[in-house]
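Annotated sample (chain length 242).
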Amino acid sequence: MNSSVWFSGLCLALTLTCSAVFAQPSPNTERYSPLPSSADGIGKGFMGREISAVMGWQGAEWLERQERDREERTDLLLEALMLKPGMVVADIGAGTGYLSRRMAPAVMPGGKVWAVDVQPEMISLLKAGAKRSGLPQIEARLSAVDDVKLPASSVDLAVMVDVYHELAYPYEVMASILKALKPGGRIVFVEYKAEDPRVPIKPLHKMSEAQIKREASVFPLVWERTVSTLPWQHVVVFSKRN
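Output written by the structure step:
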């Protein structure tokens, strides 16, 4: 089956499953606007876009699909992250730990990967995958929908791979990530390219570089670079102002 068709069908099936998560109240509801809910969204607007429905734990097979390395060129993403031994990396919305397992060897010796997810089922899959791979430097952490729940000033690099567009409370989550970043720490958005109609992903699950920069601009972040060598995704890198 074509990967875009499979992914689209999965997102539609998961919308009702995930609605209870998105119904939780936000302390800053004025930042968001109600919208007519689309098939792939949650009926909630933020800075000119509708927030998409989340890929739930039922989508684990999609995250671990055999062709993912070839389709998304994860090797190029790892190069773009510029990981070093001793770094503390937060994989936000880590899912099954697909990227966490690939980052973990690069931060050794002395580093660690906090693999953060809001779904307890994903945390179970994360832990099992890290154990099978013999990667004790991966620590799975359950977050809240509006808080990554990481220690203050503890993280060198936070990365969100195809995650940010699904955050029910993007402002609050970003604020919590900024709190967890060390001064000068980096945050990386990896999102499917909305500018490219050839990317076989549904529109609400894509973001343009301009929209990423727009939403990042409300935080004390400095844009560093955008890596466009991946076939489907942007890698947009910001650093926290000292």
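Annotation: The chain has eight helices and eleven strands.
Annotation: The helical segments are 3-22, 60-63, 68-72, 74-81, 98-103, 120-132, 170-180, 209-216.
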